[in-house]
Design a protein that fits this description.
The protein is built from 13 helices and no strands. By secondary structure, the chain is mainly α.
Length: 271
């Protein structure tokens, strides 16, 4: 076992994928608890589609993909929040509208330019080989910012998650907290698209939170458990993908599914 791990992490691309993957898994799990409880669990899927559209446009124009994707996805997150808060569109309808529209734009741009290039294909399905040292540096900086802001504003995020009306009435700046949650989610989604891909990144938001809820009851315990489950599942999935020569993102999702089944069984036994 130790020899296998030593061999696996002797490759620089595996080390880069591990660093970014663990950071993204941790950020996604922490944010996922609030998103699931607020019934915004599919926002990750919607924003990842927006990210794909932005990446397609950036590739066609010869621009830096991350520099284009991050502001576009952040703007889309704010727009989703705004549409839902005004009551003109329900959360799921707004997500479906924006995500499918962005995906359509991305496909059209690709069909008019050079087609499905390997770089955009890596963003769509994820690729460990696509991680560069620059991506790792950017991911570490942004992930550290996400984690720091989450810890600093933990109490306000907790209040907005469970009783937004009360938080707003007591001057808790609910709107600002929702904007912060949207910002952190958007950044996390863009960072995770390199390893997990557009189609699978939302699983890191949904599965750990739901898994932790099978056995934990308080917000704090669910958050901590989700973080641990997410990190462990990513590590196990990454190792399994190396041994089985399977896609890393898909293998991580399967690891999360197995964890959910185990935790659900334990929760049922505990009553």
């Amino acid at each position: 076992m130790l020899e296998m791990l030593s061999t696996m992490f002797s490759y620089q691309f595996m080390v880069r994928a591990l660093i970014v993957g663990l950071l993204v898994s941790l950020c996604a799990a922490l944010l996922g608890v609030s998103l699931v409880l607020k019934r915004y669990s599919m926002i990750g899927d919607g924003l990842s589609h927006v990210g794909f559209g932005a990446l397609a446009v950036a590739t066609a124009l010869g621009m830096a993909p991350m520099a284009v994707a991050i502001p576009v996805v952040v703007a889309a997150a704010f727009l989703l929040l705004r549409l839902s808060s005004t009551g003109k569109l329900k959360g799921d309808a707004a997500i479906a509208m924006i995500s499918t529209g962005a995906l359509a734009v991305g496909v059209i741009v690709l069909s008019l330019s050079t087609g499905m290039t390997s770089d955009v294909n890596n963003y769509l399905f994820g690729s460990m080989l696509a991680m560069s040292e620059g991506d790792v540096t950017l991911s570490v900086v942004l992930a550290a910012a996400v984690l720091t802001l989450f810890v600093v504003f933990y109490r306000r995020i907790f209040a907005v998650t469970f009783d937004e009306t009360f938080a707003r009435a007591t001057g808790g700046h609910a709107e600002a907290c929702n904007m912060l949650l949207a910002l952190l989610t958007a950044v996390t989604i863009v960072l995770g698209m390199r390893v997990m891909g557009t189609m699978l990144i939302s699983s890191l938001i949904i599965f750990p939170a739901l898994t932790a809820m099978r056995v934990c009851r308080s917000f704090k315990s669910v958050t901590l458990c989700a973080a641990v489950v997410s990190v462990v599942c990513f590590f196990v999935g990454l190792c399994a993908s190396y041994l089985l020569s399977t896609a890393a993102g898909a293998t991580v999702v399967v690891a999360n599914i197995l964890a959910f089944v185990i935790f659900a069984a334990v929760g049922r036994l505990r009553g």
